Amino acid sequence: MDYLNLISVPAIATAVYLIIEILKKAFNNNEKFLRLIPLISLIIGSIAGVICFFFIPSIIPATNVVVAIIIGASSGLTATGTNQIFKQFNKDKQN
């Protein structure tokens, strides 16, 4: 079941991306909230890493909780980067 370790980053990134999209709708794209998205993604990803470490240990390749936090945090920031990629592609189409 080593293949499960491969899905931890994309799974966490997808979950964080969806949560951020829901929060953006809830806050009506408030400018203050939009500036905090990378930090919020980092925090949500870190929490997701810890949850995976304790409740679904086969999905995350972490030997301790610190590594799980780092994997989750990087996954959360990956969600922010993915959002920016989509945003830039749409920006080019609009121009």
As for the number of domains, it is 1
Mean pLDDT: 87
Can you tell me the residue ranges where pLDDT is under 50 for at least 5 consecutive residues? Answer: none
User: Count the strands?
Assistant: 0
The structural class is mainly alpha
C-alpha Rg (nearest Å) = 15 Å
State the major sheet: none
H-E order: HHHH
From the spread of the alpha carbons, the general shape counts as elongated
Number of helices in the DSSP assignment: 4
Report the β-strand fraction as a percent range.
under 5%
**CA-CA gap between termini:** 47 Å
Helix content: over 70%
Question: Can you give a write-up of this model?
Answer:
The chain has one domain (2-94). It is elongated. With 95 residues, the protein is mainly alpha-helical. The protein is built from four helices and no strands. The longest helix is centred in the C-terminal third of the chain and has 30 residues, at 65-94. It has helices at residues 8-26, 31-35, 37-55, 65-94.
What is the compact description of this entry?
With 95 residues, this protein is mainly α. Helices cover 77% and strands 0% of the residues.
Question: Could you name the key traits of this structure?
Answer:
single chain; 95 residues; mainly alpha; 4 helices
Secondary structure layout plus pairing:
Blueprint lengths: L7 H19 L4 H5 L1 H19 L9 H30 L1
